[in-house]
Design a protein that fits this description.
This protein is of the alpha+beta class. The protein has 4 helices and 10 strands; from the N terminus they run H-E-E-E-E-H-E-E-H-E-E-E-E-H. The strands form 2 sheets. An 8-stranded mixed β-sheet has the order 1-7-8-9-10-6-5-4, sandwiched between helices. Strand 5 and strand 6 form a beta hairpin. About 10% of the residues have low confidence.
Length: about 210
């Protein structure tokens, strides 16, 4: 694996971790009777059709199974799966996500500079709301979008954050199955925006419960 890319990735994630350190003590939901955001009838989830074109050049046939979440998916094409040690080293140096979910695997495309983290979280309304509050705390001006979709028949929440006009973070959370939320987090550079979106769209469309 390219050491320079690994160092750059750690720097980006460490910056993210530090910038949000003060938000980790986010209050739990103030209303203990609040419902899971996926069952909120005030939110309209729109059908999202991904990869309508038959473009096999961006489709990854390497499918991975996340057994606890009851899901299979393909990471962005040309991604390599990090070893458990490489994955754990990144998390230990950055604190990246460890307080909010269980990390299953991490993938990197060294050419396009896309990373893909696959994770899951036990179904729990307070934990989910705390995680969402953590993501929303990254909002700074107009760098943030929050959208609601249905992908392959399941509800999905997407948060896209522009980090210093250099790197995008895309958090996606799928409604639970087998008592777990399935989480995919992608990072991708502004300089490869078009290619990254195509590859990430293909990855999201591959998710099957």
């Amino acid at each position: 694996m390219n050491k320079y890319f690994l160092i750059s990735l750690i720097f980006v994630l460490f910056t993210l971790s530090c910038s949000n350190n003060n938000n980790k003590e986010y209050d739990a939901v103030s209303n203990n009777d609040s419902k899971d955001i996926f069952s909120n009838r005030d939110i309209i989830f729109k059908n999202l059709e991904l990869n309508n074109e038959e473009d096999n050049s961006v489709k990854n046939t390497n499918e991975y199974s996340i057994s606890n979440a009851g899901v299979k998916f393909a990471p962005p094409i040309n991604s390599i799966k990090l070893s458990d040690k490489e994955r754990d080293d990144i998390i230990s140096q950055t604190g990246y996500g460890k307080d909010y979910f269980y990390t299953d695997s991490m993938f990197i495309d060294e050419n396009i500079k896309i990373t893909c983290l696959a994770a899951y979280m036990k179904k729990d309304e307070v934990s989910l709301d705390n995680f969402i509050n953590f993501i929303r705390s990254m909002k700074n001006g107009n760098n943030f979008t929050e959208e609601y979709y249905i992908i392959n028949g399941r509800k999905n929440i997407q948060f896209k954050i522009n980090m210093d006009n250099n790197t995008f973070l895309l958090y996606t959370i799928f409604e639970p199955k087998n008592d777990y939320y399935f989480i995919l987090n992608y990072t991708f550079p502004v300089s490869y925006l078009h290619d990254s979106i195509i590859r990430i769209g293909s990855s999201l469309s591959s998710v099957r419960f």
